[in-house]
Amino acid sequence: MKRQFLGLLARVYVLQFAFEVPATVAMLADMLMEYGFQVDIGSVRPLLRALQMDGYIESVLRDGIGRVYLITERGREELRNSRSQLDQLYRRLHSRGDASEAAQG
Question: In the record, which residues are listed under signal peptide (predicted)?
Answer without folding.
Answer: none
